Amino acid sequence: MDARMERSASFFTGTAKSKVIAEIMVDDTEYKVSGEGFACPLEGHQTLELHCSGTKAMSINWSILGTIIQSNFKLFTQYTGSCVYDFFKTSFPGGLKVETTASFSDGAVIRGNSSLTYVKDTVICRCNIQCEGFCEESPARARDLGQTLPCYEVIEGYKADEVTCTMDLEWNDSDKQKYLCRLESSFVSGGTGNFAPPRHFIGHHFKITDKSPNNLHFAQRCKSRANRISYYKN
Q1: What are 166-181's pLDDT values in tens digits?
Q2: Cβ distance 180 to 105 under 8 Å?
Q3: Contact in structure between 62 and 215 (CB atoms under 8 Å)
Q4: Domains of the chain
Q5: pLDDT grade, residue 126 (50/70/90)?
Q6: pLDDT digit string (tens) for 26-52?
Q7: Residues 6 or more apart from 109 whose CB is under 8 A from it?
């Protein structure tokens, strides 16, 4: 286990590049999205820029879709000093497969599946996302929905080669009312047998750095740090 951690730390030393290739379905409308970013995995910083192809503006607020896509890049979480096994970085170079379900407070649902691979010093995330049940009055369709609020995520070692993740996301709408989402994901390691980590937490802090008025472009920075509650020694 220690050898695997040392290998992953050396593997992601310095700055890492990321790339997104996504197909997003909103009801019966398809959007093609591409993105690029940079991260400092050992420090827990990542920035991701997303672009909607063509002239058709994304109909779901980028604060929601950008956060869900960015949540796939958990290998960019800072684990240094956390005394917790880093399942995400140690899954490379084999990669990760992700299944995601986001359930919103107004009954809408986003489902997605993604694969993350490491090619020529770049982490590539390929996503297929389906958005269902967002009515025209949904806060998710509003252009003035606020950025994702700081949150914590629970990581549970389900079994060897797989972890489950649960995160409650919140945004403020134009009336300062909370719009809520429960994001549940499973991450499966694509390499040779990995270890299941103990239950721990990841704190996330999101900040929008750019957003075009026509809703075709979006950029967001995220800081993520792992920790574990351990008040008593066994």
Answers
A1: 999 999 998 899 999 9
A2: yes
A3: yes
A4: 2-226 (2.40.155.10)
A5: very high
A6: 989 999 999 999 999 999 999 999 999
A7: 101, 102, 103, 131, 132, 133
